[in-house]
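INTERNAL AUDIT FORM
Audit reference: QA-55
Scope: verify that the stored structure record matches its stored sequence.
Auditor: D.O.
Record contents follow.
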Amino acid sequence: MDANHQPRQASQTPASKNVPHAPGGDLVNYTFPRARLKQFMDDASKTPLLLVSCGSFSPITYLHLRMFEMAADYAKYNSEFEVIGGYLSPVSDSYRKAGLASADHRIAMTKIAAEQCSKWLDVDPWEASQKEYQPTAIVLDHFEHEINVVQQGIATRNGKRKSVRIVLLAGADLIQTMSTPGVWSQDDLDHILGKYGVFIVERTGTDIDDAMATLTPWRHNIWVIPQLIQNDVSSTKIRLFLRREMSVRYLVPAPVIHYIEEHKLYEDDGASSSIHEKGKDTQAKPVDGSSTSN
């Protein structure tokens, strides 16, 4: 697992106190996807939990999906949480980098993977459809608004409703970046780790204990999930395999492979053209304050 499984670094400015919760003019006819959310809690004594993974997903791999399953198992057997849903939130095209396929392609691939490989995961296109880069803190605020304000949490069998805990799901590289001076602002760390929290999936070679030493104020909101079966597949490696015309079968869902082949994605190092604008130059370039996966 690599940086492909961590969200975009938060911006170097504090998270906004006045987040535009409702989608702005960048989306047309946007509706928050709720079809796969649990309608009722199984155990009203537990805390409902929503897992959110932000990233490039260029392309999505089986490990991206597997992380949700590991997190769900951890929550079930090692916490008082009850998972009520999980979302993939692809970054927008404003996060420009080599190898980043257009947002419409990445939304399509993540939807294919979620619909055909999972019974409970879903894809929210809100972030990917924005014209401007959205910091991780703002994306989490968006989910908080949709789940706990618009939907008013989740119902229990006794007729009451409970507020849902929104938590970021990411790879171990996230903790390393958060513990590195100057990468994240203090306000963003407090907003993400203090208000929401994060489920971190371990990675071989990553010293989580060392990284956690500088994140002591938020330790109670960081849950580390052991990766019992090691898997270091990454989208970066998948793109390299594809450029070399090597097989990625059993590393990427078959329907996603078919989509990549159909649209001739990842045949070079640049970002691929959009579905509707073939040939449009969308060459990637760095954007300050980004924190997405590869």
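Auditor finding: record pair retrieved intact. The CA atoms of residues 34 and 196 lie 20 Å apart.
Action required: none
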